[in-house]
Amino acid sequence: MTKNEWLERATKFELGNCIFYNRPVVIECRDQLDGSRKWVLKMHEWVLGKDGEFIWEPMPSSRTDEFIANTRFDTPDECHSFWVSAVTEQKPLYVS
Predict the structure, then answer these.
(1) CA 55, CA 45: separation in Å to the nearest integer?
(2) In the chain, N or C terminus with fewer CB closer than 10 Å?
(3) In tens digits, what is the pLDDT along the chain, a chain of 96 residues?
(4) How far is residue 12's CA from residue 5's CA, in Å, rounded to a whole number?
(5) Any residues with CB less than 8 A from the CB of 52 and at least 6 apart, and which?
(6) Phi, psi of 21 (to 5 degrees)
């Protein structure tokens, strides 16, 4: 298998520790109900929202359509690029 084929099959990318929170960060694949594939940036039990905030990720049965739309990205590259540009300082983490 070629390098590109391996990357196309990957479902998780470990990025090391966040420099602001000192917690491990991963980009993970999430299969959607419609059969599509979306990507999420996860730091422990928090996921990065498109508002630039880390949000506590509830159990799958408690995730609303609004939550899914706010925390899912179309590609791992889009997810990573947003993280690099949006997370520029440590902010308080809350469990809602």
Answers:
(1) 8
(2) C
(3) 898 888 788 999 999 999 999 999 999 999 988 999 999 999 999 999 999 999 999 999 999 999 999 999 999 999 999 999 999 999 888 776
(4) 14
(5) 86, 87
(6) -110, -10
